[in-house]
Design a protein that fits this description.
The complex is a heterodimer of chains A (about 400) and B (about 45). With about 400 residues, chain A is an all-alpha fold. Chain A has one domain (about 5-10, about 40-375): Formate dehydrogenase/DMSO reductase domain (Formate dehydrogenase/DMSO reductase fold, Up-down Bundle), CATH 1.20.1630. Chain A is built from 14 helices and no strands. Chain A has helices spanning about 15-35, 50-55, 60-65, 65-75, 85-110, 110-115, 130-155, 160-165, 170-190, 210-235, 240-275, 285-310, 315-340, 355-380. Chain B has about 45 residues and is mainly alpha-helical. Chain B has one domain (about 1-40). Chain B has 1 helix and no strands. Chain B has one helix at about 10-40. The chains are: A mainly alpha (about 400), B mainly alpha (about 45). The interface of A and B includes residues 276 and 307 of A.
Chain lengths: ~400, ~45
């Protein structure tokens, strides 16, 4: 199928703004490599992990959960009627994990050349480290997502044989993707159990792996609702009838799934408070009110709104609630990794990112956005390729 | 009635009791939530 955006030209306002952001960002990345992390970041001994790690690992990875949640729904639970969003979900997952791994490898590690040269990941595997498990899972999962993504590229390029061969492993890959995601989504939470004295007790819990895994489910579902909405707004001309017809059903079903996952999350959060007897923290400091705001304002209320949206078949309400839910996930991950970390430190010694850190973050997000647009406008993500229609 | 907590066992026991009560409450609430969520699904 030809690119329907090709007539728009390269010099649009969006491209111009994105170009300026990227050029300045690339110069700042050059400064980071020239002068080291200290040249552009506010990292310190108290905060060796800053906004990049919080965003690119702890927020982008649950965003990428859209891939495994959709894959599990369609291939493992047999919800074939939502098949139209599988490709979009795989693309979101693939780009998210590439962003996470790429930014960590190229920006955030003090000696990135050591990872590029497969050292010490392969040469000296730290099998007792939670980070090793995350790294191994992410490497394997990116490989799985790449194999799931390649058929779209093959359809675009017309490689029929390769495409048919790659599709043979779809079910096995879906199972593998769920297993790997269960492992690393929870391990991202488990990593914070080794900071009992630094993370505020309301966020610190032996159930952190469960919190992170369950929240990744409704994060992935919400992201898919948001991205479906964005695609419908900006790329509606690319979508064929099947995609447009299934849109409402997908929103309602994923909204319902997110609602149920959020109910489970709320329940285990309350159990976490009860088993460790942390009730007295709730009203004893600002952290308590902040926790209540996060749990009630960004989990309980969106959960109720999802339920109301599904009950009333109000897709607009579900779409806005998905945005709200994603904001809650972002708030939760920032709380665990930065805001409520080192809670005993005075405010003046807390970490604040430099403008250069923020700019580089925006640069990476912009580049990913441009890549997403490039792929969606060229490859058969939102429509069935006419040459392969009989295979869908 | 006020109970003192003197040992880890007391602490665990008190929290366990509360957790079991919460478990029962959450099961009831989950059933109600599911009914609220799916009540109108059969209308179609």
């Amino acid at each position: 199928m030809p690119d329907k955006n090709s007539g728009r030209g390269l010099f649009t306002l969006t491209n111009l703004v994105a170009g300026i952001i990227v050029i300045i960002g690339l110069y700042l990345i050059f400064l980071r490599f020239k002068g080291g992390l200290g040249a552009v970041t506010n990292f310190s001994d108290d905060y060796p992990w800053g906004i990049w790690k919080s965003f690119f690992i702890f927020i982008v990875v649950p965003i990428g959960a859209a891939g495994y949640t959709t894959g599990a729904a369609v291939y493992l639970f047999g919800m074939e009627k939502y098949h139209s969003v599988v490709r979009l979900a795989v693309l979101i997952g693939f780009l998210s994990y590439c962003t996470a791994a790429g930014s960590l490898t190229l920006l955030d590690v003090g000696r990135p050349e050591r990872i590029i040269m497969a050292y010490p990941f392969v040469v000296q595997p730290g099998t007792t480290s939670l980070l090793f498990e995350v790294a191994l899972c992410v490497v394997l999962y990116i490989t799985v997502l790449l194999i799931e993504f390649l058929p779209f590229s093959c359809e675009w390029l017309g490689y029929r044989k390769a495409r048919n061969w790659l599709l043979k492993g779809t079910l096995a890959l879906a199972i593998f993707a769920v297993v790997l995601s269960t492992m690393h989504q929870s391990t991202l939470g488990a990593m914070w159990t080794i900071t009992p004295a630094k993370l505020h007790p309301l966020w610190q819990s032996p159930y952190l792996p469960v919190y992170f895994f369950v929240s990744s489910i409704f994060s992935g579902l919400s992201v898919l609702i948001i991205m479906t909405t964005i695609c419908k707004h900006f790329f509606k001309h690319l979508m064929n009838e099947r995609y447009l017809d299934e849109d409402e059903g997908v929103i309602l079903a994923f909204g319902k799934g997110a609602c149920v996952a959020m109910l489970g999350y709320l329940t285990i959060q309350v159990f976490g408070l009860a088993t460790a007897d942390k009730w007295h923290y709730l009203f004893s400091s600002m952290y308590g009110y902040w926790y209540l705001l996060e749990l009630l304002g960004f989990v309980a209320l969106p959960c109720l709104f999802f339920a109301m949206g599904c009950r009333e078949k109000n897709t607009k309400l579900i779409r806005w609630t998905a945005v709200w839910t994603l904001l809650g996930i972002i708030l939760n991950r920032f709380n665990v990794t930065l805001l409520c970390y080192n809670y005993h430190l005075p405010f003046s010694e807390k970490y604040t990112p430099t403008w250069m850190e923020v700019w580089i973050l925006i640069t990476v997000v912009t580049i990913v956005g441009l890549v997403f647009r490039f792929i969606v406008t060229r490859m058969p993500i939102l429509y069935d390729h006419p040459d392969f229609k009989s295979h869908h | 009635m006020e109970h003192g907590i003197y040992t880890l066992h007391d602490f665990m026991k008190q929290n366990e009791d509360l957790t079991y009560i919460l478990l029962g409450v959450s099961l009831v609430l989950a059933t109600l939530a599911w009914m609220f969520l799916t009540e109108r699904d059969d209308d179609e």
